[in-house]
## 1
Amino acid sequence: MVKYTPILETKHKNHRYDKKMQQMMHILTDKKYWGGDRTLTETGNSYKKFVGDMVSAISKGRHISPKMDKAIKGIVTRYVESTSPKKTLEKEARIKRLHWKIQEVRSKIDTAKYSQDYTSSGHHFLASIMSQVERTGKLSPKQKDALNKMYVKANKRIQKNGHNRNG
């Protein structure tokens, strides 16, 4: 563990936020937390930009309102909670489970023998979903619904094609 050493001078207007600023600077550089090694501007991540803005506000001596103070504390708290070993293991288990489900849908789409365009479009959608799963470990209800519909539709097509060949 690295020993805390103040960056801001004692006379700096926001010296009391020095430790929080350093914590947020660490958060901004944690590639695993942000999901890869993309820079702030490449991700388009408004939360990451907000964290950067808070660091900037502290370092430039801007007045820190009570609302900003609460946000700064929340940033650090959420980071600590989300990077705890227990949360990390839970996220990894969710990612593994969702990865398996997405692969199952991909397999059904391939087996259903759709047109090449439809199959390619489905694979592209699944790749984008997979990218989000690996980044966040979660899917929205609409994404889950879309995956389920793709699975059911492909399954029906497989069954229909199976009946046509046997009947």
## 2
Amino acid sequence: MLSQNWFNPMTILTHITTNKSTNISVFQQKNNTQSIFSNALTNEVLTDRLRTIDDIFNELYTDWYEEVKYISSPRMYDNRHYQNIISLGIYVLPCIMSKLKTAPEHLFEALTQITGEDPVPKTHWGDTEQMTEDWFTWWKNRPHA
């Protein structure tokens, strides 16, 4: 169950590389408190970028959609971008709820995994419009509303 004060604006410091999976190492410069984030494989110095959850969600969602738009199976949920959306946890819920208004069909799984809840009765399964309505009813009853 979500706590009463879980809905706080949040900003995440992320270090973005290309779409490759790489190891990121943090090295402390001698006599300098600044950290250098270096790509261990190519030794490139990465730029720190302060980004909001909205920015991160939109980028992940766009990348995920481009990779799976022609896939119609549970494999689409195993995609690394979708899993990264889920890993943002409760902080991404406002972004997902906003996206439900325009592209709901593939976000229900993320909502269920993040919240641990599923307000959609079995009789509504497969009815995207009704499932969306069920999630919005759930959302309105959350403490932040």
## 3
Amino acid sequence: MTDALRVLLIEDTEQDAMLLERTLRRKWKALDLRRIETADAMRAALETGTWDVVLSDFNLPGFGAPEALAIQEEVAPDLPFVVVSGLIATEDAVEIMRSGADDIVRKEDLARLVPTVERKTGEAEGRRERRRLEAELRNREEHYRGLYRDTPAMMHSIDGEGRIVNVSDYWLEHLGYRADEVIGRKSVEFLTGESRRYAETKVLPAFMRTGSCTNVEYQFVKKNGEIIDTLLSATAERDTDGAFIRSLAIVTDVTDKKRAEHDLMRTNRALRTISQCNQVLVHATSEEQLLFDICRTIVEYGGYRMAWVGFPENDAKKSICPVAHYGHEKGFLDIASPSWEDVEGQYCPSGAAIRKGTPQLLQNLADHPEFACDLEVALARGYAACGAFPLKEDDHVFGTLTALAGEPMAFDDAEAVLLQELADDLAYGILALRESAERRRTERELEKVHQRLTSAIESLPDGFAIFDCDDRLVLTNEKYKEIYAESVPAIRLGTTFEELVRYGLDHGQYADAVGLGRVKTVGRVRL
């Protein structure tokens, strides 16, 4: 993916435009973004500039997404058009999608913006590439009709017995065979076992009857053993009596497309998992429940086989104490006894994540006999891949979040980054809950101290009062109020010593001072 992206942004709010630009620039460093607000400006930008995607707010004064989409369809129909808006009515969303918008991203869910733009620009590029290839194929067919072998596509023909009678050079090149290794063999011999059974029992019998098939999913096996995903479409050539002569099959390699779709599905799955985990974090009230709910969410929303959280111990074995888990665990953690000790010839992803403070991935457990957490037990429980992500407070690792997948190669780069972000969010949530718990504990202790102090003061036979460094009353007992009964209305927390004395003088508290008039200065007495 290139670092450059050219964006035409239809947005009237400067702050929202800046937020969108920051979000996009995290992915595309060479971001070229032009903001416009009117139909004329949009038309001019489309006619004079080159863009990768159009992002549009739904409502602008006198101009909005529906009008912008109409202009885009007229001037540059190949451009992806994504609505990025706040509140949008369901009927408006349905209508704009029906009109041709590629997607809708809510402004409060900008985590979807980058993957959506990636997907839609990729699809647009794919469409342009497909149109280019289709045009190229048409030109070749027009100029070289009948030059079967030279057609730049995987093509072959079979006879009534299913044996290959002709094959294109491109077919041979793509699968790595010579013509003499292919001609005369049955076409199904080049398929995987599952695809061959499907072809022999379903596709070929129907094809021989109807004379056509479209986009049949097969897996071909190259000469080097590599498996590719394909779509096969074919038509039958018949004689004047309707008897089958041969077929013409075109095979399209969709391996990269399916891999991209699979990667996108996993990324979206990870994003949904993070979104749900964020909800868990927001509503968490206890660390124990938080850890359990995070593990549950990873399994239920992320599709993983099992997830667990562990904290390192400082015992002799440097054990990792599992504090929460969810999924198909079946006693695995008790048997595995995970450790963060660095032992030569053994590798525990969770332990390595704690020691190194970085994500640790094993994409295929079966290929790693050094897996230190009892490989046989792990495979028996259906674990095929493992990812461990450190929980950190600044540079200190205090735990690990580990996910075990049921399929190999379950952690691509994008998904690993998202899962580490999830681990960072979890670490923040744990620390916040611990801080909150400690604060509540401290408050309870202070309340107990205050109660003991109050009780002690009340038990004194004499009047007692405490003033702070600013001479303001902070604590007194009932005996003090009995002694200075005339001053009770002024005996309030926060009253200064001088204010208390002056009130007493004004209300006859001090009999010896009667007739002396207002006291100008009162001596300071600390009780």
## 4
Amino acid sequence: MKTQLLFFVLISLALAAIDVRAQSTAADPHRIIPIREMTQDVEVLYGDPEKSGESFVIRIRELAGGLIPPHRHPVDEHITVVRGTLYFAVGDKYDRAVMKELKTGSYAFIPKGSIMFGYTPDAAIVQVHGIGPFHIHWRAGEHWQDELKTLSKKLEGLEAEYFEREK
């Protein structure tokens, strides 16, 4: 009888351990994602950037000759250049003279609310991680375009304005 009870207890403990491990794996599965060619502008590697309080990792494909107009985020942003070169700066106005060259492997930390901008002379991939919600607030003159998630027709004129200043 004692042997049967001991066997039952051991089996129960083993099943409980398997169940806890399965729950842990389902809730937080490991991810190993090598660098690869991107077919979309943004790839979510981990988490949900829109979800408040949830950590996330995304990769952003920057096109050759790409301009990143002044913008800000309501959360801290950790940026790592995983391919190519990004010229990047923090400041109120777009100014290539203050941009720093960030080559592959470079890292930048940008506190929430900071205004940032940049450009990519050649194609690049930038990896961003932080705690959501990750929203982009684009600067449009003295105003902010808070409802836009990406550059759209509304901002094409703004982009042209920045290019004109650079000439």
